[in-house]
Amino acid sequence: MITEKYAYFVFALFFFPLWIFLYWKRKDLRKEMLIGSICVSFWALISERLFIYDYWTPQFIFGSKFGMEDFIYGFLAGGIANVVYEEIFGIKHSKRKNRSHDWSVFLLPVFGISLALFVISMLFFKINTMLSVLIPIIILTIFMIYLRKDLLRDAIISGIIFSLITFLNYIILIHLFPSIIDHWYHGKGINYHLFLGVPMGEIYWAIALGAVAGPFYEFFVGLKYKK
To answer: pTM value?
Structure first.
């Protein structure tokens, strides 16, 4: 019998078949997938230290608070969230790029404001870490949609699809490891709320990740979809 020690690793690998399928099926999206995978994987690896205080404390195979599971999950989840919308609806990019704005100019101030709000909400208002992390993600998503309203559909559908994928993977995980919710998740704040046994924090996170990752590449590269 596989112990809880391997549960997070197993959960991360649930995303592997879909990532491989998307990478194989959509050669035109491979660059976007890899960029999304790399960005989210390093973010997941670095930010995990924050969540162990008031959100969850998962077990890692090598017994470290900075497990390889974070990197694997972030890599696979980031790539999927970036391109799942394009694959499901058979959408391709237009060769013509939008050069009306230098999107990179906006990146630093938006991240700066978002980071400041994250620190304020977590340290001063004592808001749960997961909710505090969602604040900069939501701000960045709103910012991108405000400047590129044509990406609204991408953000909404990507958020819905990736949350469904995450939810189904959690249902399987809980079936295999029934006690992880009680053993891993801190019983306060956002973790009081479960949907069919799945912590709502994980669903909120999946929606936010899909919403921000879906249009992220198109926004900062200036790509548009073919009509």
So the answer is: 0.86
